[in-house]
Amino acid sequence: MNKIALWIVGLGVVLHAHFLTLLPSRDSVWDKNETTIAFDIAFMHPFEQSAMDMEAPKIYLNNRKTPLPLTQTIKLDRKAWRSSYTIKTPSVYRFFVEPQPYFESAEEKFIVHIPKVIIGAFGMQEGWDEPIGLKYEIVPLTKPFGLYVGNQFRAKVLHDGKPAPDVEVEVELYNVFGLQAPTEAHITQIVKTDANGIFSFTMNHKGWWGFAALIEEGSLEHEGRSYPVENGALMWIKAY
Amino acid sequence: MIRYLFAFWLLLGSAWAHKINLFITQEGDRVEIYSYFANGNPCKKCQLLIKNHDKVLLEGALNDEGRYQYLAAHKNLEIIIHAEGGHSAKEVIEAQNLHPQNLKSHLQGEQNKEQINALLGLLLIFVIFFLLKKIKQ
User: Fold this and answer.
1) Which of A81, A178, B25, B99 has the fewest CB atoms in 10 Å of its CB?
2) Could you tell me if B21 lies within 8 Å of chain A, comparing CB atoms?
3) CATH number of the domain within which B24 lies
């Protein structure tokens, strides 16, 4: 009986998608008096608003040259991180986070999600569709800032710089609205990439939406055993 | 009716696509003016108008990078950019560190800068020809 109960709990965890959140305080900058962007970085189930402890990641702007400063914080009662960046010139800014691998014992695998978020500043709209050059990456085909509810978001998933066909992309709303899903199946939406690595999704609610293209590749050691790695190319966009 | 609305929407979209942006910063007594389109292209040689209330302080043009440096002698400045096709951008700022310079000397300074740039260009051309001649010999 206990085994069955544990199995049910385990299944419950499997059903809920993990997302590494990289949420900026705004997705575009227009006001010269509000140019500092704060970032919330946490590892969680965004629709259900429950989190896991997260070890210190690294956050970068455009490339891996210089990580931005981090401070530890608490998010949903779990260890999380904050960072900030002050924008000085008109441009399109592409931020991304590299976390430490997270061992998920219930699923017997490591999770390495690399989220990115793109911020437009002072009307500049050039470069949001260019890849950063990450091993696993979502490259938007829809301008990723200044979106409305009901907009269709299209993007391409790249694996080693090439389009990744037939990849599952999990989608969740960062549910700070207290929404209740009609069933468990409604929590995580899933779309798949086509032969050109392209997927699309229509956002039906305001707020931040997370997209996680999941590619299982490679392995890592944990207590003398080798486990597969779930690599996630993540992207966060906001619908108004 | 729907056709007209669609045409209006297309026109609006097109106008936005050509929207010019104006980004003004102040470094010391210099007002740095930068104007650009959404695609990142600079507003080259676009018409620049600087006013203090209704008084025109400067009528000039941005350079090829869509930039202009202005030494502010008045606190309240209205900066207006006009591009071709009737597109324009405007911003009102309060200059922080005023420069005790009149328009005449400011324009003289700008002219001097242009003359220096022209001289440097000529010098560069001369150096290139000189080097090419040397190589041929």
Assistant:
1) A178
2) yes
3) 2.60.40.1930
What's residue B102's pLDDT? Answer: 58
pLDDT tens-digit readout, B66-124 = 999 999 889 999 999 999 878 899 999 998 877 765 566 666 766 777 788 788 888 88
Question: Within this chain, do residues B80 and B130 fall inside the same structural domain, yes or no?
Answer: no
Measure in Å the smallest separation between the Cα of A176 and chain B Cα atoms: 32
One domain for residues B69 and B119? no
B67 and B124 in a single domain? The answer is: no
Mean pLDDT for the stretch of residues A15-40: 92
Range of the domain at A204: 2-239
Per-residue pLDDT tens for A140-155?
Answer: 999 999 999 999 999 9
pLDDT in tens, B11-49: 444 444 568 999 999 988 899 999 999 999 999 999 999
- The reply to whether B15 and B76 lie within a common domain is yes
- Give bridge partners of residue A36 from the DSSP assignment: A86
Total domains in the fold of chain A: 1
- Residue A125, class by beta-carbon neighbours within 10 Å (0-12 exposed, 13-18 middle, 19+ buried)? buried
Same domain, B91 and B107: no
Cβ contact A123–B21 (<8 Å): yes
> Contacts of residue A123 in chain B, CB cutoff 8 Å?
19, 21, 36, 38
Tell me whether residues A124 and B36 touch, CB distance under 8 A.
yes
Q: Which string of DSSP letters, residue by residue, matches A70-132?
A: EEEEEETTEEEEEEEEE--SSEEEEEEEEPPPEEETTTTEEEEEEEEEEEEETT--SSTTS--
Beta bridge partners of B93: B77
In which domain, by residue range, is B82 found?
A: 2-97
Q: How far apart are CA A239 and CA A46, in angstroms?
A: 15
Q: Are A197 and A158 in contact (CB under 8 A)?
A: yes
Are B74 and B124 contained in the same domain?
no
pLDDT given at position B97: 75
Q: What chain A residue is nearest to B42 in terms of C-alpha separation?
A: A124
**At A52, which amino acid appears?**
M
pLDDT computed for residue A233 by the predictor:
98
The alpha-carbon gap from A124 to the nearest alpha carbon of chain B, in Å, equals: 5
